[in-house]
Design a protein that fits this description.
Helix content: 25-40%
Order of helices and strands: HHEEEHEHHEHHE
Radius of gyration: 20 Å
Strand order of the largest sheet: 5-4-1-2-3-6
Largest sheet: 6 strands, mixed
Number of helices: 7
Number of strands: 6
């Protein structure tokens, strides 16, 4: 990278793929306007606004750019097996809290329902409106979950669905990105347990940097790490 470019504030890093071409621009505009109103209400202390999403990690994380001595090539020793996927589901309230749970494999509707039940119970106890912003993932709209919507709403919990292919509207995506690229990038783990500890540490570091609390929950019907 040229020195002049660096002085101008331009850095060398990977680019993320864009789904802008698949977005419905009109729907996105309407949803963004609605989300802006919710964010203003949250900033005014009128409601609690949280962002939900799922992500995943594996024992072989992607190599990252790094510095090394000129004429040398830094190599990362891989483990014998890549291992099973470690999934995470999180609820992010910027500048306030990050609640998350870990499971081996994928996050299913039972884990999602447990997390949402806890949020609904908290909203009812506090007698305060709570909005969860999330995408249109299958477990978020399965029949079993739809049957619980009215119950959650009676408790004060409402769901705000983002438009399709608009993940950039969910700030929790940046938390996943930073954990993967800043805390775990280029590391190899012997097993899922070591990976889980690294993810937990990564979440804690992000919480300290972002000045928000972190809490890990355990799912009843899973084998959490």
């Amino acid at each position: 990278m040229k020195t002049g470019t660096k002085k101008k504030g331009i850095i060398w890093k990977r680019a993320s793929p864009s789904h802008k071409g698949k977005q419905d621009s009109k729907e996105r505009e309407i949803k963004q306007s609605d989300l802006d109103m919710l964010e203003w209400a949250a900033a005014a202390g009128e409601i609690d606004l949280k962002y939900l999403d799922e992500s995943g990690f594996c024992a072989w994380s992607k190599p990252s750019y790094t510095y090394y001595n000129k004429g040398q090539q830094k190599r990362i020793q891989q483990t014998k097996h890549r291992g099973r996927r470690l999934s995470i589901v999180g609820l992010f309230e910027p500048l306030s809290s990050f609640v998350y749970g870990l499971v081996i494999g994928g996050v299913d509707r039972k884990a999602y329902i447990q997390m949402m039940d806890q949020e609904a119970e908290a909203a009812a106890k506090m007698k305060r409106l709570r909005i969860i912003v999330q995408d249109n993932g299958p477990i978020h709209k399965c029949q079993e979950v739809k049957q619980l919507w009215s119950k959650w709403e009676e408790q004060g919990l409402y769901i705000f669905f983002l438009p399709k292919y608009c993940s950039e509207m969910n700030p929790i995506e940046l938390e996943w990105q930073h954990i993967k690229e800043d805390e775990l990038a280029g590391q190899m783990f012997d097993d899922e347990l070591d990976l889980a500890y690294a993810v937990i540490d990564g979440v804690e570091v992000r919480g300290q940097r972002g000045n928000y609390s972190t809490q890990r929950i355990k799912f009843k019907s899973h084998h959490p790490t």
